[in-house]
């Protein structure tokens, strides 16, 4: 067995320091570059990553550098590699059975009437993965050698890297049954069938020069998947017996991040693998187990989820406790892949230097791993200066002005702040809104065109004055309002041209936040976001959305939605302070939003949407931790909306949220109308809604905005008919899955026209008039 390095990371950002991959991929989709140029750009990014990681202290020839690149998504990569291709895309295979890059993107994005793979959140992160579709008919075979070629590419440049692939248990546990599968089919039942493809992959990786391979198995820590812990443990035992028993393979590191392994740890300890990576940020040091004497334990003590510099002394102490388990060796690592954090805090020239001293982005976390690795090999006295420096920064952060604001903390809350009058009273009061059956609306944003982005950039750089920029925004808002009226929508939005991001916009207008210039993090595919930094107590110095919503409402006699981002989502899509319970921080944000709602009502806005797409995302993976989370997350939403008048219709929106998993929490939000993702999953969610007896307004989406496809009238009509069959018509709204920010106007307008026409047909069928 080749020794495992004393320090490593589980993965690295792959979009490029200036989003080079995003730009190249989108240029390829648009036909501006060819496949060869896209491949060249990707190879340059991989090479730059290897060189950067080596410069930061990871070894060039000891497998410390992970080979974790992806053009779109690591789960899609694994599915394509082992041939798990839905039958509707089988025609995309080449004659030799392989799946090339254009086919890969088509599976991700859809083509004509062929819908793409469903998308949902990756465990409790803000990253989205594509859901494999697997049935009895799926024929597994090694269908892509891309990872093998990348390892060979690294070797040619003088690097021995560690290829990273989603493991077989996680791949199957995250999959859904294919359309061709019988009812009740479990993709995990295909484990024995997929293992030969994994085994062949390992053999080819070894032949290409890999001495270690990393199998990512985060499903093993989750208690929120269809398969229970016992079934996952049994599957892991079987899979690792087969893969670990192969002779022609690299040494195997099994990584199980995002929570504690708990009862599964002894299974991995006894398995024929050489190393186990455990998350010691979200989990504790496990108990000793049989089989560790010949294994390396990789301690994930540097937080891969957040950007705080952290307590290095405590991290090192945790590694020393890990040594007490009796493993052959202990290695320092990140708790998760660093794909969840930006590249380099040194790029942030506009942040307060004091704040910067508290932060660690991906590059700084690599350096932290190096410090801890040196401490493991040379003793704590060798890193005493670094530990003291980190501790001093932590003390400075806790004592800094604004971190604790007495004016924010002295606000006392009572039970009445968390509730409105009954839903029945509100429903009666809201009849005055005069809405038709199956009211049509959108989720909030309209396309962020190149003109909008260009105007915002020019204003930010000081090239155009505020008055000129505001005039531009008024014209954009007027055009969006006019378009919606022409289309025949019932409740309008102003399109949000003034907002760069649904969280960052609020962060820029609330005290206690900071925003970055280059802190991009991949959300899904080619999409990236810049999470804001919530570093101190939160308050609202002035109204945020009132002027633009009021202006838009003045342009139309129809109702216009005020658009706010909810407290849980603001937390989920920011890097949040870790020095107090999340519930306390959420309530501070909720009180700021409560003030905003009151000002919107005073401005004549009668429909207000408080988006909470991240409600499911933050749900802890361990069942014992879920009740507490749901209590404070629901309470923060109710605190934000609890002051709204009965006649004000409060909406919320949840996308890719697995409605059935958190149905009780969504009911407890007590929003008047909830819109949810449903199109990509072909309205599967309505069965959960009906079974739960959900009796508030509900808008299951009929247009998948994460795909460039324009849904046909008949497709939307079919989705609406399914919804009408399951849910009382008086509750139903018609809307897209999510905001339209990422789409272009041509496809958006065509899609909305088809939605309006489909709604007209279904309204006629149910006897409703427009």
Written overview of the protein:
- The chain has 770 residues and is α/β, with parallel strands linked by helices.
- The chain contains 26 helices and 22 strands.
- The protein has a 7-stranded parallel sheet.
- The radius of gyration is 26 Å and the shape is globular.
- The mean pLDDT is 95.
Low-confidence regions: none
Note the main sheet: 7 strands, parallel
How much beta, percentage-wise?
5-15%
**Helix content estimate:** 25-40%
Radius of gyration: 26 Å
Q: Report the strand count.
A: 22
Q: How would you sum up the global shape?
A: globular
Q: What number is the mean pLDDT? A: 95
Tally of helical segments: 26
Q: What is the CA–CA distance across the termini?
A: 72 Å
Coarse structural class: alpha/beta
Q: Biggest sheet, strands in spatial order?
A: 1-5-7-8-9-10-11
Short account of what is shown:
By secondary structure, the protein is α/β, with parallel strands linked by helices.
């Amino acid at each position: 067995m080749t020794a495992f390095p004393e320090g490593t990371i589980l993965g690295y950002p792959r979009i490029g320091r200036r989003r080079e991959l995003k730009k190249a991929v989108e240029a390829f989709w648009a036909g501006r570059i060819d496949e060869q140029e896209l491949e060249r750009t990707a190879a340059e990014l991989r090479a730059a990553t290897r060189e950067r990681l080596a410069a930061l202290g990871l070894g060039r020839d000891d497998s410390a550098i992970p080979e974790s690149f992806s053009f779109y998504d690591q789960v899609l990569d694994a599915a394509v590699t082992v041939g798990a291709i839905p039958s509707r895309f089988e025609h995309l295979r080449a004659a030799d059975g392989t799946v090339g890059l254009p086919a890969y993107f088509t599976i991700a994005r859809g083509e004509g009437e062929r819908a793409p793979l469903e998308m949902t959140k990756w465990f409790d992160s803000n990253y989205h993965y594509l859901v494999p579709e697997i049935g009895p008919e799926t024929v597994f075979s090694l269908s892509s050698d891309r990872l093998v070629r990348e390892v060979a590419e690294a070797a040619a440049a003088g690097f021995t890297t560690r290829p990273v692939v989603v493991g077989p248990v996680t791949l199957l546990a995250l999959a859904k049954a294919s359309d061709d599968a019988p009812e009740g089919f479990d993709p995990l039942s295909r484990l024995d069938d997929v293992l030969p493809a994994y085994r062949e992959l390992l053999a080819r990786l070894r032949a290409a020069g890999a001495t270690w391979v990393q199998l990512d198995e985060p499903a093993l820590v989750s208690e929120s998947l269809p398969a229970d812990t016992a079934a996952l443990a049994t599957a892991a035992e079987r899979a690792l017996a087969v893969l670990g028993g192969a002779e022609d393979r690299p040494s195997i590191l099994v990584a199980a991040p995002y929570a504690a392994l708990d009862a599964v740890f002894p299974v991995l300890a006894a398995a024929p693998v050489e190393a186990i990576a455990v998350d010691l940020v979200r989990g504790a040091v496990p108990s000793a187990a049989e089989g560790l004497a010949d294994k390396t334990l990789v301690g994930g003590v540097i937080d891969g989820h957040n950007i705080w510099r952290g307590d290095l002394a405590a991290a090192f102490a945790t590694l020393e406790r890990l040594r007490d388990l009796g493993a052959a060796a202990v290695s320092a690592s990140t708790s998760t892949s660093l794909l969840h954090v930006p590249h380099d805090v040194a790029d942030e020239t506009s942040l307060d230097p004091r704040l910067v001293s508290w932060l660690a982005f991906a590059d700084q976390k690599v350096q932290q791993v190096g410090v801890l690795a040196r401490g493991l090999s040379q003793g704590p006295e060798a890193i005493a200066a670094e530990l003291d420096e980190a501790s001093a920064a932590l003390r400075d952060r806790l004592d800094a002005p604004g971190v604790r604001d007495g004016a924010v903390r002295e606000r006392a809350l009572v039970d009445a702040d968390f509730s409105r009058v009954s839903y029945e009273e509100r429903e009666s009061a809201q009849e005055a809104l005069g809405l038709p059956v199956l009211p049509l609306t959108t989720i909030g944003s309209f396309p962020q065109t190149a003109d909008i982005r260009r105007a915002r950039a020019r204003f930010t750089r000081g090239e155009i004055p505020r008055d000129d920029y505001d005039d531009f925004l008024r014209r954009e808002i007027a055009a969006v309002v006019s378009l919606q009226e022409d289309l025949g929508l019932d409740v309008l939005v102003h399109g949000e041209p003034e907002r760069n991001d649904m969280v960052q916009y609020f962060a820029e207008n609330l005290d206690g936040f900071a925003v970055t210039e280059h802190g991009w993090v991949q959300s899904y595919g080619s999409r990236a976001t810049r999470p804001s930094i919530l570093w101190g107590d939160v308050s609202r110095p002035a109204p945020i959305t009132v002027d633009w919503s009021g202006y838009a409402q003045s342009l139309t006699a129809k109702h216009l939605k005020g658009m706010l981002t909810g407290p849980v989502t603001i937390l989920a899509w920011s890097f949040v302070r870790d020095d107090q319970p999340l519930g306390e921080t959420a309530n501070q944000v909720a009180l700021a939003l409560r003030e905003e709602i009151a000002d919107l009502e005073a401005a004549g806005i009668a429909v207000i949407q408080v988006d909470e797409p991240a409600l499911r995302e933050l749900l802890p993976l361990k069942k014992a931790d879920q009740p507490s989370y749901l209590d404070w997350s629901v309470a923060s939403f109710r605190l934000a909306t609890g002051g709204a008048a009965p006649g004000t219709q409060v909406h919320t929106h949840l996308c890719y949220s697995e409605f059935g998993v958190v149905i009780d929490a969504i009911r407890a939000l007590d929003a008047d109308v909830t819109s949810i993702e449903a199109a990509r999953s072909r309205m599967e969610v309505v069965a959960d809604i009906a079974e739960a007896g959900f009796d508030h307004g509900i808008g299951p989406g009929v247009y998948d905005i994460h795909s460039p496809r324009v849904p046909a009238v008949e497709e939307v009509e079919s989705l609406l008919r399914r919804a009408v069959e399951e849910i009382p018509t008086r509750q139903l709204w018609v809307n897209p899955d999510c905001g339209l920010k990422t789409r272009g106007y041509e496809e958006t307008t065509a899609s909305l026209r088809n939605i309006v026409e489909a709604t007209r047909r279904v309204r006629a069928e149910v006897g409703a008039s427009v």
